[in-house]
Amino acid sequence: MSETNKSARLLRLGLRRLLFLVCLALCGALVSATLVRFAPGNGLTERELDPRFRPDSLEALRQQQALHQGLPSYYFHYLSALAHGDLGESESLKRPVLDLLRQRFPVTSNSVIRGLAVAWLAAALLATLGLALRGWFFETSATAFNSLLLSLPSAVVAMLAVHLRTPVFCAIAVAVFPRLYSYIRNLLLRAYDQPHVLAARARGLSTATIFLRHVLPLAAPPLLALLGVSFAISFGAAIPIEALCDSPGLGQLAWQAALSRDLPLIVNVTLIVSLVMLVANSLADFAGRAFATGNSQ
Amino acid sequence: MIPRVSIFLALALALICPAIVSAQSATQSGGELHFCLHGEPKTFNPLLVEDGQSEIVRYLTGGVLMRLNRQTQALEPALAVSWKISPDARTIKFHLRSGLHFSDGTPFTSEDVAYTVKALMDPQLHSPTGDSFRSGEGQVNIQTPSPDTITVTFPAPVAGLERLFDQVAILSAHSPKKEMAVLGPFYVADYNPGSYVLLRRNANYWKKDREGKSLPYLDSIRLDIQNNHDIEILRFRRGEIHLINAVDADLFDRLQKESPATAHDAGPSLDSEFVWFNQVPHAAFPDYKKVWFRSTEFRKAISLAINRADLSRIVYAGHARPAYGPISPANHFWFNAALPAPNYDSAAALRLLTQAGFRFDGTTLRDSLGNRVEFTVVTSTGNKPREQMVTMIQQDLSQIGIKVNLVTLDFPSLIERITRTFDYEACLLGFVNNDLDPNSQMNVWLSSAENHQWNPKQSKPATTWEAEIDRLMQSQASATTDKKRKADWDRVQQIAFEQQPFIYLINRDAMSAISPAVIGSAPSVLDPHAFWNADVLRLGPDPALGAQK
Amino acid sequence: MSLLQKIAAGILCAIFVAMVFAAFLVPAPYARQFRDIPNAGPSTAHPLGTDALGRDSLSRLLYGTRVSLLLSPAAALLSTLIAALLGSVAGLLGGWFERIILAVTDLSLALPWLFLLLVVRALLPLDVPPLVSVVIAFLMMGLLGWQASVRVIAAAVRGVRDSDFLLLARSSGCKPFRLLLRHVAPNLRPLFYTQFLISIPLFILTEANLSILGLGVMEPMPSWGNLMRGFEDFSLLAANPWRLAPIVLLVVVVMCFQLVLPSQEVTQ
Hints:
The complex is a heterotrimer. Chain A is mainly α. Chain A is 81% helix and 0% strand. Chain A is elongated, with a radius of gyration of 24 Å. Chain B has 17 helices and 21 strands. In chain B, helix 12 (384-398) links the parallel strand 16 and strand 17 (403-409). The radius of gyration of chain B is 27 Å and the shape is globular. Chain C is 70% helix and 0% strand. The chains are: A mainly alpha, B alpha+beta, C mainly alpha. Chains in contact: A-B, A-C, B-C. The interface between B and C is medium-sized, with 32 and 27 residues.
């Protein structure tokens, strides 16, 4: 009985949290709408410099574009259309935003997930290996490598990825890996120094047993939290990398939208990106906390 | 019994298979041409084309009544076998080819041309192509006496009328596929936004080669959407794409050193780069600067003090020519050959400035009121040649004591400053010109026009020379012979040289990269440089591309 | 301090000295164009060769170091101040307040801040001197780069919140602002200091990224990012390895910073 009660409470809490996040992401979208609206060059295209147009045609085209350019009216129209599942039409690409997002989102999420997988595998492997070996040389070279990756500007990494024709996810992995590595390494080190792990080691248990029985459970909640946070980080990293590598994902779309002052597009891209990042972060929070309480019981 | 049947089948298959294979290789002989678009095509409706990407698709898919040969600069019959313009330059009569079909099989008649012209001239359409035809108020009169003749009468004379039809892709009046039914060599088969546009061979294309084989040779063209020029050149080097229509000078230079066979410089193009001073009376900077910018001597001195030869040598690696004026020397007919060549002479510049009351003390230039001469040039972000040109102009002008600042702005902000707020002092931009006939620059030179950048939308001409240009513009637009029009334009070029409202810097060469695998290419000065003859291009064996597959 | 840290500190000091005395070390003014020798290789007159416009690469590198190394700390200071303020308020007040501040922090990471940089440049008056616009670019980075530190500081403040001395101060009727200034801030000073130092290399990297995108420091003023704009063509780099100097210097400086700093403890 108390179990069902508890899960119902958890569900309610989760729903409330989700609602909060959606509202927040909507606020973010509206903030970016305001930004675009007041940015210089709003509503102006290269057409203004095209001498083939006659003045009356230019004026008529401007009038068409000026619809809903007032902010409150834009907010209202946007929100009411959103309630009906209509995200509007991109001004620069002349296509429904929903279609664009549907095409671009999988590209981005695909490279983010693959990049994350590679980065996690590499980081976890290197960290555990470092612990198992506990050699000075290995530790130093791993740290140096890590620090080198941390010191490379991501734009240079992206250019390198372009040149070497490696897929975008490699660049994402390179951007995320160093942060994961040092974090995971510190976590494991700390877990190994816990008294009961030390005791287990003193008892002469095998390395694998110690790792699976004692270290992993201890490190699991923060690792789980890290998973969510790293998702948000890599999603954030993907945006500029995609823009630089010219990969047809959300990042490239956002960059084009910014350069062409495409209000409907930029608002919706912001909405999606912020929603994904907020949800990932708060899931991390949630998971870390739930695991911690579950463990303590 | 059963084994026998299977043996028979196997034999039959063995006999048929080579036939299948050879049939495939025969159809594949044309192959698929790959190259890049630098952005999303905004429309596939040929009448609404504004951007370069859509223009490429229109060029490759649209059937036009007559086509400007990009190499000879002469008009050639296409869907129209012949045409005749009335002496008053208002009426044009076409004789059409008969028995043609659109890509979807719909027959082509004069009705389609009438439909297209009507749609084009609809004032509600706001088509830039249509606007070029609109020289006066009133209705266009279209008559189709027979399925293969059509007469179009415009309300007023249209300058360079027949050339404008090079831009008008004929739509079908009846096809259920609307604008996707085309008469050009290719049709749009697939479009994946953000990724590619696939054009396939139009089997109903009218043109045949000398042996009577139907064109085009190519089976398809794949246009990959690729904004980044560096990635484009990388892919070209790897053999993943066959051509680059317009290559930046520094990349071209490198390409030329690596593989000279692929780099083609067709000579100076119609495109120009120029800098101009803001002469708008209510512009947002101090009045003493307005006095400088309105002074003819000041503008001429700046023009003299800029080392154009260095700009072309260093920024464009020698692949550009110092520009004379609004019309490029590449435009054989319209260029005024009597113009003096632009020269670099900072001593002469200083003399001119002293005449105009400026004082140079060896390091700084001051005007008669004692203000230091300093201005900011804006240009667009991310355009390396333009940034480099301003940086070089900085050093050139520092020698006559002028301080120049550089600010790069993203394009919309730049447009807002130069067309709305007029909050800028000088601006360096380029003009991409696809049209040989200078009438397309009418909206730049008329003082009342919006594109009269240095001082747009004047209610009456601010200077006598602008008034004279206005008069010449009206005169050339209503003239009925090209000879008279040329005389007017020669005078305009002369005034532009004397007054330097736009300080023309260079005409960029038409540089393209074409893989040796492409057979039949003939790079031209006019756009599209590398694939203007796409219907006769073929693909030969290419080791690099073969390795990719 | 380990040997490695000493070496790193030594390298940083050497670079710092070279940067300060750049004016005496450089072969030519950084904007001077030797137009007869564009893209030249190393020579005695130009130890690192010249760039596409014939400007001396060594001079540009040294002056670029000045821009990057002097202005990144300024940006770091600004961002740490913002993060300290937001983080302490969030940690001190807790509850919904904290949740909202942290959520807004997450949200601001998702906003199109690249766009904001575009906009700010376009909004500035055009006739500001190049130096001012460079400073403004770095200040903008500082204004936009505070998110990472907020969580760390909020967590630390949360830790201090229930400590005895704060309870005591609160019970004696101390106002929240005073509490923040007199009791919380002094206790967290080492943390603020670390956060400040950690963000310096981050801003060096940010500047490089932005300048490569064309949003950072304006020509002809050099900066590390600006000097890396020609890197799109790697085949050219392979033939002219001395052109890698800016990235080598940047990586060395950032790595040295990471070594010298107190090791980055587990955050969040």
